[in-house]
User: What shape does this take?
Amino acid sequence: MSDLLLLPEHRYAKVIEQTRNEDGSELSILNLGPTHPATHGIFQNILLMDGEKILDAEPTIGYIHRAFEKIAENRPFYQVNVLTDRMNYCSSPINNMAWWMTVEKLLEIEVPKRAQYLRVIVMELARITDHLICNSILGVDTGAYTGFLYVFQFREKVYEIYEEICGARLTTNMGRIGGFERDWSEAAFKKLDTFLTDFPVAWKEFENLFERNRIFIDRTVNVGPITAEKAMQYGLTGPNLRAAGIDYDVRKAQPYSSYEDFEFDVPVGKSGDTYDRFCVRNAEVWESLSIIKQALAKLPEGPIHADVPDYYLPPKEDVYHNMESLIYHFKIVMGEVPVPVAEIYHPVEGGNGELGFYLITDGSRTPYRLHFRRPCFIYYQAYTEMIKGGMLSDAIVILSSLNVIAGELDA
Amino acid sequence: MALETAYIQEKMTQKFGNKVLNFSMSRDVFSFEATSDAIYEVIRTLKTEEDLNFHFLTDLCGVHYPDNDENHQFAVVYHLHNWVENVRIRITTYLNGENPEVHSMTDLFLCTNWMERETFDFYGINFIGHPQLKRILNMDEMVSHPMRKEFPMEDSGRTDKDDRFFGRTAQKI
Assistant: This one.
């Protein structure tokens, strides 16, 4: 985090001094961000420009760094969950579930099938909202506001489903070690059904608005392309990688939470440009919808959490009337739970890439070290190279299409 | 043919002898240690040898172990992934506490650029050969490296989060 004020010794100042265009015009510097309505988050880029063409860029990040890794080293395991949903806040349930699965891997807890399927449903809902925001905002940045207004109400519908499940909307703090805090209410399933009937209609129309739209194609095709080789070098994962033609998806490569029970395709693009990223996300929404339908159809009956009294909070009525429950409740709340010494890496397919938790424990009540592999922190490095040679308006479109979430970028 | 962990181990010990050690299956990820003078060559071999082909660097991060001996005060942990065989691997290298430095991986994997800057920012680990080693998430004026264990997170007078009161000896802050 630096260079808010451009110092005279900045490397671009020297470049400008030394370069003269043939027609006598000068290069210029443009400070894009940190707060700019078109960047959807706090990103600063110092651009070296020749007219409207970008020659070089220097991104500065860290404006909303909140030291989550340090905080996590000082909190019991169940309190770390609230940090995770503040990272990628467009798909917080995925982060929540990823954290619980990491802890369950550490404690070797087997989660009942019903809870696993419910997790899959809520994670795919989160993926839909994530892609929905990203693609509709990309539309807004190319000048098409209608599509955004049209599909955005469905994010609201999904948030209502979250509300039924856990009581919260944006920062969900959903689930517990071993499963869910309570079974889903009938209203939740009803709202889910309504969503599953109404949303595909709207999404189809959204697709029709954009995918064959001349203006949209002109603005996005061959804008910010990246080759498969470069994408791997820059550590791209998720839809951005698949748009470049590599079919790597954590749900297929390392299935977690019973993803192996469902049939779905991994859509891939070809050129890795903005249009391909848009199309891959569109296609993934259809796959997510199909996974949700399969999970609902196959949803088994049974408990919604594993029988692990050492880690799973007992029902409140029991705490008041049952000595054992009171003891467990006290121990869990005080963070006094047995934890093995281990090193765990657990990846999941997040909304924008491989989200990984690298956890080291030393047997105490808090993680010894917790590192978040935040996908957009890693792939945002490729942004500079993608916008070089493009126009300023392309830079805005590319940034939206990469789905960089400021909260995750800065952790 | 699937890539066997025994094969990786054999291949690495053949080439690096006692500079690679402690091979083990840590839950679902095969992991080992490499000395800090050999780590660059180890990663380069893992990436470039065709039959190993660990072409994707998933993650890089630092760890601080203040209770270890002088030469094991810091660790840098690399996670590599071979997508073709779908095998993950974890390599840890321990660094000296006085002068933690290790060779940069930026010429092997472009994505390590910011990850190494982050590790430098939070742990003060010096990556030799890094093109632009400066702070990334914290402000440039900061003098300390906040993820080190001696760096206090909150009011040091606060005792309600102290392990000693829960019958444990591990002292975190």
